[in-house]
Amino acid sequence: MTDWMTKRRPYGKRQARMIIDRLIGLYGLPETTLDDKDDPWRLLVAAILAAQCTDERVNKVTPYLWETYPTMEDISKAEPKAIEPIIKSCGLYRNKAKNIHLASLYLLEHHQGQVPETLEELLEVPGVGRKIANLILGDSFGKEAIVVDTHCKRLSKRIGLTDADDPYKVEQDLVQKVPEEHWTDWGHLMVTHGRAVCMARSPQCDACVVQDICREGRKVWRESQNK
What we know:
By secondary structure, the protein is an all-alpha fold.
C-alpha cells in the first residue's frame, strides 16, 4: 500500500479496473435502488420522480401511483393535477406530474406505448435526459451505460478519472477509462460507495478500500504522514 501511496500513478483504465474489482469484492454487483427496474416504463417514471429526491422516498410513493394508474394508458388519460397529490412528497411535483403525463402521451403516439431502446430515442421523451436514459438502457435493457448522478460525479473526480464538472463531459471521460463491460456497474458502485464511505462532506478515506489508488485518498494519506 505504501508503494502506491508514495508514487505518482496515471489515472486511467488500469486504475478504474482495480477500483471496480475492489468495490465488487466489497459490495458485490449492486443494482439500482429504485424498485421498478424490471419495467422500463415504471423505471422511467420512478427516475423522473427521483430528481432531487431519495430513491427510498420514490419507492414509497410509486406503489400508490401504480395502484391508481397501473398502465401508461391510464396515466395518459389523467390530468397532471390528478397525479400531483400522489407524488407531492417527492418534491417538484407539478413539473414531475407534467413530464410523466407528457412522456406517456409521447410514447403512445410515437412508440406504440413501448419505451425505446436507444439513447437517441430516449432523449426525445419528455422529462428524460442522459442520466435517466442511461439508467433505463443499463437496468431495463441490459445495455452498458454510465449514469452520471451526483455520487458518480463526486467520486469519479475524487478518484482522479475526470476533472470535469459537466455531467456529459464526466460521462465521456469515464467511457474512455472504465471497461465497457462495467459501465453500468460503475454508476451503481459509485452510489453504493458514496453512501457508505465516500460521503460528500466527510469521506472516510482511512476506511476506504481504494484509498491507495484514489487521488484524494492518497493526498489525505500523504498529509497524515507529514503531521
